[in-house]
Design a protein that fits this description.
The complex is a heterodimer of chains A (about 110) and B (about 110). Chain A has about 110 residues and is an all-beta fold. Chain A contains no helices and 11 strands. In chain B, the strands form 2 sheets. In chain B, strands 2, 4, 5, 9, 10 and 11 form a 6-stranded mixed β-sheet that branches. A 5-stranded antiparallel β-sheet of chain B has the order 1-3-8-7-6, with no helix packed on it. Classes of the chains: A mainly beta (about 110), B mainly beta (about 110).
Chain lengths: ~110, ~110
């Protein structure tokens, strides 16, 4: 059974056209993360929510925003996608924010910017 | 900032041989070390993890060792099979910016040849 679900799996957008990626989870986890992964690279953390508390990485561009309307859902908004934003976007969850908490990844959304 | 170095970046073995991937980390406070396997186009999947209160953990053909003094940990895969071919990421927990997060290594591409 899918525990971390991402939709769509593939997203094509135009340069500068806003796009929203979605993530949902059935684990009732408190923490949800968004990562960007480019080809042959490690996942790069963009931001995360601990409940409603939003934490942005210092080097995450302002072009990226996130919303978490409830425990189950989290959205990644890219306000003006550039060619450099083409990547796999991974959502992950963990039960708590503690150091030993396992992160569970969704299948990812591959974003293509034309 | 904190970082995790992973070696080698690529590893090619014959089926049945063993494979070893090594990581070193910089944050002496790190106490959680997961390993993820990522097949092409798929999500990173947790395959094994170790916490700082143990030095070794084994799960069938996979084992992880941890040396906190030297700040390094390793993944060992025995009797490799073609389906072990994937990219493997190590990670270390780190408390940064007021919360815990995972710092990923750059990944190792493992190819197991029949």
């Amino acid at each position: 059974d899918a525990m971390v679900i991402q939709n769509p799996r593939y997203q094509v957008t135009q340069f500068g056209k806003p796009v929203t990626l979605s993530c949902s989870q059935t684990l009732n986890h408190n923490v949800m993360y968004w990562y960007q992964q480019k080809s042959s690279q490690a996942p790069k953390l963009l931001f995360h929510y601990y409940d409603k508390d939003f934490n942005n990485e210092a080097d995450t561009p302002d072009n990226f925003q996130s919303r978490r309307p409830n425990t189950s859902f989290c959205f990644l908004d890219i306000r003006s996608p550039g060619l450099g934003d083409a990547a796999m976007y991974l959502c992950a969850t963990s039960g708590q924010q503690g150091a030993g908490e396992t992160q569970y990844f969704g299948p990812g959304t591959r974003l293509l910017v034309l | 900032g904190e970082n995790v170095e992973q070696h080698p970046s690529t590893l090619s073995v014959q089926e049945g041989d063993s494979a070893v991937i090594k990581c070193t980390y910089s944050d002496s406070a790190s106490n959680y070390f997961p390993w993820y396997k990522q097949e092409l186009g798929k999500r990173p999947q947790l395959i094994i993890d170790i916490r700082s209160n143990v030095g070794e953990k084994k799960d069938q053909r996979i084992a992880v060792t941890l040396n906190k003094t030297a700040k390094h940990f390793s993944l060992h895969i025995t009797e490799t099979q073609p389906e072990d071919s994937a990219v493997y990421f190590c990670a270390a927990s780190s408390f940064s910016g007021g919360y815990n997060k995972l710092i990923f290594g750059a990944g190792t591409r493992l190819a197991v040849h029949p």
